[in-house]
Cysteine-rich receptor-like protein kinase 29 (Quercus rubra), 659 residues
Amino acid sequence: MSISRLPLLFFYAILLVPLVSHSLVLQRDPYVLHNCSTSGNVSSNGTFRANLNTLISTFSSNTQIDYGFYNFSAGEGTDKVYATGLCRADLTPTDCRICLNNSGHELLQLCPNEKEGIMWYMNCTVRYSNNSIFGVMETKPIKYLATGPSDDLVSKLTEFNEVLSTLFYDLRVGASAGGIFRKVAVGNATYLNHTIYGLMQCSPDLSEMDCSNCLVEAQSYNKICCNGSLGVRALAPTCNLRIESNQFYGSTLVESLPSLSPPPVPAKSLYPPPVSAKGKKSNSSKNTVIIIVAAVVFVVLIICIWLCLRVKKQRKKVEMDEISNAESLQFNFPTIRVATNNFADANKVGKGGFGAVYKGRLSDGQEIAVKRLSMGSGQGDLEFKNEILLMAKLHHRNLVKLRGFCLEGNERLLIYEFVSNGSLDQVIFDPTKRANLDWQMRYKIIVGIARGLLYLHEDSRLRIIHRDLKASNILLDDEMNPKIADFGLARLVLLDQTHSSTNRIVGTYGYMAPEYAYYGHFSIKSDVFSFGVLVLEMICGQKNGYFHNNKNEDDLLSYAWKNWRNMTTSNIIDPTLGVGSKPEIIRCIHIGLLCVQENVADRPTMSSIILMLNGNSITLSVPSQPAFLTHNNVEPDISSDQPILASINEASITALYPR
């Protein structure tokens, strides 16, 4: 033992309260508590230890995670190690990684040969084991720290404990209701002349029930060890609670969570001070008016504060309910590993910018498509969250259905319904397969895509802009019904919001509207532009970026526009379609050109497009010149004042196709 620690340990020993068998010491800042398991030992220079060292280092090197919870595993068989790191929710990602790195390396020194260990720092917890600890509630070992009891509270323990129980209940309910990225709640209560601030937190991989049970277990020891104390910490492997007489958590945490405390009441009266006897009569009317006005202002202010807090709380509750609904779709990793035959290459059916896609079969016989995000993807975690929370809310026959997801260790998996005929680009751009796709089938696909977009833009309870609509993001089921897929880049906007903007241009060149490619402005009309490009591709059977013909034209939009003006639209039509449906095909060329007009305001909405597709009696307006973009694979310089050029496809979306 280090000599430098002896004075500190001696100080703790003096203040030790022998009420329970759990550790109970005066809270210090910073303090360190740890526990090493006696269940088994490993070599300090063996493979198990090397894997553990790697995991501990990962806490400080992984910059993708920004929600304060890390769960990783490394190794195989008896040398496999599982590790978790949990930070107090108000820590910045940088401070969190520093805390985890320090506590993790100290734990390695204190537990050099043990198979299991846990370290509690002031603001973070690091834990490792040779057994899987992901999503498993653990309340042993549990440790307590407390300050000395307050004399005025000890004399009225019954009343004090009632106030504390109410605060604990609110905190436990709030923390348990958290989502898959964070389970934490803060609040305060007042008794006598004391304000009590509290925090409860669980590992976010626990279910709502497990989180609640863990906190109940931690809370149950409070009356035994810490009656009348205003400074208490209960530390378990998968949850913790803390109360203090001062606000120990950051204001950012208070603002980001639903309020568990009533709004503060002003301590001083808003009434004006009394006037002297001299001039009292002359000022009585004026004072009365001031009092009335002040009272009205006070009442209005209180009502406004109450309404704002209520709206904010309801909004947060809706968000938590949505995340909880998404949690019901969670699969465990072993289930998906079995379904895909351990992600065998024979089951790989596609690959995109964020990882590979595998075909799988669940134990009930249901076929699934599993998108496995690659660990090296810089944007994978963000798109993963985005896609879960969006897709869990969307249900339409022309949108691919999210069956579930898996979040375990380094693994990020999205599980979809398996669509047997793969993606549209595998059919429409293949000379052999395209010949079997007659106009009736192509028209059916065009209408289905339009209906899916209409749902996203207007008919769902959200307004969603896809931002990367293209042929490889359209999947075809066994009846060739189209399903829009991959919402990793989708953006949610307000129902009354007409447009938005971004500094990061991501998507696929050729399908991007000019206002988005150059300036980062996007709206529902950006999706309309992409739809227009898709319509023209369906008619000519060639990809816009690699379009070619006998006259060496290399731009589909310019070629379509030139032939439209010259009334030679037959040159645009795929020769395999024949002439039987030519009037309907020409009408679709007309609709496609309306969608790709350079002026955003001139492009129709998806509701208008549906009417155009379904009603031949509707007169179409004359299209203006489409936007012609120069081919450039240039990364946009978002710091420059110059217009942004079309970017490379930083987030190419996964294409699914059967083998």
